[in-house]
C-alpha cells in the first residue's frame, strides 16, 4: 500500500539535493549512515552554493564534498568522532571536531541544533513502509525529527537490524527517496595484537566473572580482551555496548554470549552502532538476539548501572599522575573523540559488582623522533583534552600491572600510577610528583 507514495517521493540524487540552498545546515548521519550518491551530487553543486555546513562522524569513506572543496570555500564539514580519514583531513585544516559525550547526541539535536536537510543511508523499505537504519542507530531518529527536509538513500546491501527503539523511520516521515549505488559496507579489521597487548588483555580477563555483561570499546585492546574471553572457561555473558564489534561474534560462536543474566533486555545483546567484518554485518541481519537502540538508551549511566556485574573495557592515549585520562587527543591535535567512554566508565562503576577498566601500553615510539615515550605523564600537556576526569577513574591496566584508583588520595594515585608506568620513566615521574606535592616522603623510591 506504500509503493505509490514511494514512487511519488523517488528522486535521482541530483534532483534530491536541489532542495539544499546556500546557508543550510546539512546532516549526513554517522559512520555507515553517511550517504554516498547524495554526497557526490551535493559536491557537484559546489559552484552554485555557498556557506553549506555539514555534520557527520566516523566517516569510513572519503567525502566528495571535501575532495571537491579542499579550501572549504563552500562546504564546512564538522565531525562528531574522527576515524583515520577525518583525522588526516583535520590535520590538513579540512574539518572541525564537535565535542560531545556520546549519550547526549540525540539531546543536542532535539534541544539545540538546526538541521535544514538530513541525508542518510538506510535499508530498503519493507512492506509496512519502514526504512531500517541497519547497523547505525545512534542519533538517526533525533536528526530526522529535527530536519526540515528528510532524504533517505537506499542501500540494498544493508542488513536489517532488529530493535530496540528508533531503529527505523516510516515513509510518512520522509520527503525524498534516492536509490543509491549499493556499495558494500566498509569492513574494519582490528590491528594485529603484540605480546604487550596480550599481556594486558590476559590481566583483564582474569578479573572477568561468569554472568557479567560486557562493553568493549573501539580499538585493538578491548577487541582482543573479548576474543580471549571467547577462549576462556567463562560462560553466560551479556552484551550492553555502544559499538558492536567482532569480539562479540566470537563470544557468540563460542556459546558464551547468552544474555541470560541481564536484568534489563534479558536475552538480548544491546548496541547502538556496528562496525567490523562482513560476517559481523551478516550476524546482525534479522537477528532477534540483538537489539538496536539509540545512544541515549545504551549509554545512559543510570541504565548501565541497573545491570549487575557490568564490565566496561576501553583504552586511552595518555594519563597523568592525577589520574586524568586523555583518550582522544595528543596535545591540541584531535585524534578521535570522547565517544561513550565516560558513559560506560561511570555506569560500570555504579553497577552492582561492576568494574570499569582503562587499558593502555605504558609506552609508544614517536614516529618523528623514533624515541620511546611514556604514556604516563606528570601532567597532561597544555591543551590536551581530558576525556575522563580523575574523579571517575576506576581500574587502570598496563603491561606492568593493574591498579584501582577509586577513592584514592593524590599521593596514593601518584604511587599507583607510577607503579604501572614503564620502569625507565619512573624516577623522573617521582621527581615531578615531588615538585607537585603529591609524593609522600614514605613512598618507596
Indicate the topology:
Layout: H1 3-9, H2 13-16, E1 25-27, H3 37-43, E2 52-56, H4 64-68, E3 75-79, H5 84-91, E4 96-97, H6 105-111, E5 117-122, E6 130-132, H7 140-146, E7 149-154, E8 168-170, E9 176-179, H8 195-205, E10 213-216, H9 220-230, E11 238-239, E12 243-244, H10 246-253, E13 269-271, E14 273-274, H11 278-284, E15 290-292, H12 295-298, H13 301-305, E16 310-315, E17 318-320, E18 325-326, E19 329-330, E20 333-334, H14 341-350, E21 355-359, E22 363-365, E23 372-374, E24 376-377, E25 395-398, E26 401-404, H15 410-419, H16 423-435
Parallel strand pairs: 1-2, 1-5, 2-3, 3-4, 5-7, 7-9, 10-11, 10-16, 12-14, 13-15, 16-21, 17-24, 21-25
Antiparallel strand pairs: 6-8, 17-18, 19-20, 22-23, 25-26
Specify the helix fraction band. Answer: 25-40%
Q: How would you write the strand order of the largest sheet?
A: 4-3-2-1-5-7-9
Supply the number of structural domains. Answer: 2
Kindly state the number of beta strands.
26
How far from one another are the termini? Answer: 77 Å
What does this structure look like?
- With 445 residues, the protein is an alpha/beta fold.
- The protein has 2 domains: 159 residues, Glutaconate Coenzyme A-transferase; 241 residues, 3-Layer(aba) Sandwich (Glutaconate Coenzyme A-transferase).
- Helices cover 28% and strands 20% of the residues.
- The strands form 8 sheets. Strands 4-3-2-1-5-7-9 form a 7-stranded parallel β-sheet, covered by helices on one side. It has a 6-stranded mixed β-sheet with strand order 11-10-16-21-25-26, sandwiched between helices. A 3-stranded mixed β-sheet has the order 18-17-24, with no helix packed on it.
- Strand 3, helix 5 and strand 4 form a beta-alpha-beta unit.
- The termini are far apart.
Amino acid at each position: 500500500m506504500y509503493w505509490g507514495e514511494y514512487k511519488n517521493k523517488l528522486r535521482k540524487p541530483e534532483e534530491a539535493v536541489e532542495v539544499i540552498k546556500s546557508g543550510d545546515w546539512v546532516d549526513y548521519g554517522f559512520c555507515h549512515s553517511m550517504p554516498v550518491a547524495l554526497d557526490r551530487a551535493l559536491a557537484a553543486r559546489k559552484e552554485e552554493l555557498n556557506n553549506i555546513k555539514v555534520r557527520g562522524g566516523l566517516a569510513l569513506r572519503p567525502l566528495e564534498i571535501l575532495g571537491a572543496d579542499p579550501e572549504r570555500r563552500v562546504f564546512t564539514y564538522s565531525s562528531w568522532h574522527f576515524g583515520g580519514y577525518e583525522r588526516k583531513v583535520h590535520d590538513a585544516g579540512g574539518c572541525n571536531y564537535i565535542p560531545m559525550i556520546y549519550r547526549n547526541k540525540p539531546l543536542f539535536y532535539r534541544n539545540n541544533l538546526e538541521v535544514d536537510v538530513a541525508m542518510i543511508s538506510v535499508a530498503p523499505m519493507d512492506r509496512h513502509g519502514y526504512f531500517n537504519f541497519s547497523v547505525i542507530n545512534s542519533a538517526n531518529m533525533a536528526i530526522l525529527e529535527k530536519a526540515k527536509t528528510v532524504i533517505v538513500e537506499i542501500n540494498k546491501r544493508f542488513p536489517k537490524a532488529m530493535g530496540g527503539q528508533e531503529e527505523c523511520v516510516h515513509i510518512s516521515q520522509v520527503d525524498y527517496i534516492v536509490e543509491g549505488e549499493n556499495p558494500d559496507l566498509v569492513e574494519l579489521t582490528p590491528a594485529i595484537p603484540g605480546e604487550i597487548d596480550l599481556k594486558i588483555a590476559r590481566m583483564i580477563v582474569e578479573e572477568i566473572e561468569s554472568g557479567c555483561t560486557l562493553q568493549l570499546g573501539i580499538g585493538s585492546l578491548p577487541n582482543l580482551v573479548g576474543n580471549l574471553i571467547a577462549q576462556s572457561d567463562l560462560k553466560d555473558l551479556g552484551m550492553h555496548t555502544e559499538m558492536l564489534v567482532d569480539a562479540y561474534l566470537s563470544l557468540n560462536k563460542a556459546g558464551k554470549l547468552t544474555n541470560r543474566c541481564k536484568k534489563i533486555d534479558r536475552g538480548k545483546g544491546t548496541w547502538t552502532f556496528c562496525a567490523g567484518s562482513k560476517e559481523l554485518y551478516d550476524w546482525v541481519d534479522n537477528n532477534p538476539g540483538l537489539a538496536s537502540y539509540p545512544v541515549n538508551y545504551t549509554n545512559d549511566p543510570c541504565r548501565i548501572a541497573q545491570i549487575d556485574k557490568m564490565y566496561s573495557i576501553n583504552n586511552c592515549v595518555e594519563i597523568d599522575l592525577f589520574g586524568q585520562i586523555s583518550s582522544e587527543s595528543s596535545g591540541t591535535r584531535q585524534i578521535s573523540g570522547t565517544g561513550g567512554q565516560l558513559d560506560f566508565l561511570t555506569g560500570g562503576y555504579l553497577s552492582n559488582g561492576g568494574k570499569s577498566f582503562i587499558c593502555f601500553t605504558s609506552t609508544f615510539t614517536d614516529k618523528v623522533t623514533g624515541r620511546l615515550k611514556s604514556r604516563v605523564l606528570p601532567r597532561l600537556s597544555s591543551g590536551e583534552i581530558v576525556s575522563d576526569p580523575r574523579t571517575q577513574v576506576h581500574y587502570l591496566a598496563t603491561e606492568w600491572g593493574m591498579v584501582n584508583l577509586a577513592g584514592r588520595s593524590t599521593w596514593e594515585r601518584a604511587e599507583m600510577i607510577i607503579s604501572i608506568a614503564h620502569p625507565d620513566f619512573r624516577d623522573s615521574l617521582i621527581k615531578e610528583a615531588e615538585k607537585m606535592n603529591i609524593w609522600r616522603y614514605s613512598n618507596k623510591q
